[in-house]
Design brief:
Blueprint: E1 13-17, H1 26-37, E2 41-44, H2 51-60, E3 65-70, H3 75-88, E4 95-100, H4 107-113, E5 117-119, H5 125-140
Parallel strand pairs: 1-2, 1-3, 3-4, 4-5
Helix pairs in contact: 1-5, 2-3
Length: 142
């Protein structure tokens, strides 16, 4: 088999974003580092991003996944807006995950909106890495 027919597997590209007015990004940075250490390409957007800015970054970076880190309590406003904007752009192949202080009673509704998984404080970074790997691999074979 010639080397021209073998495509090297590209790295999983993950946008890690902090939507809204939440000013605490230690957790997002820890997750970004864990994903990077696991061989993923990570684009960290920084603090105070609007849903529109996040979706634009997902498009520009041709991301496989987006991780939204929210500690402000605005997850039921910000997450649905990001999901809605992705759909408006015809983007249905990007894995959406949410992390932060998300009340257990809100998780089913977030998943119904299209969030693949919600990680609350104390979630092992390896579990997040493993989930993103498995979910993006499963999605790429659909």
């Amino acid at each position: 088999m010639s080397s021209a027919t073998v495509q090297p597997k590209s790295k999983i590209r993950v946008v890690v974003a902090k939507p809204g007015l939440d000013g605490h990004d230690r957790g997002a940075k820890i997750i970004a580092r864990a994903l990077r250490d696991a061989g993923m390409e990570v684009i960290y957007t920084g603090l105070h991003q609007t849903p529109e800015q996040i979706v634009e970054t997902v498009i520009q970076e041709d991301a496989d996944a987006v991780g939204l880190s929210i500690l402000s309590g605005a997850h039921m406003t910000l997450v649905p807006r990001v999901v809605e904007l992705l759909r408006e752009q015809g983007i249905d192949d990007v894995l959406v995950t949410v992390g932060g202080t998300i009340p257990a009673e809100d998780i089913p509704e977030l998943k119904q909106l299209g969030v693949a998984e919600v990680f609350t404080p104390g979630a092992p970074t390896q579990a997040i890495v493993d989930f993103i790997r498995a979910a993006t691999a499963a999605h790429s074979t659909d």
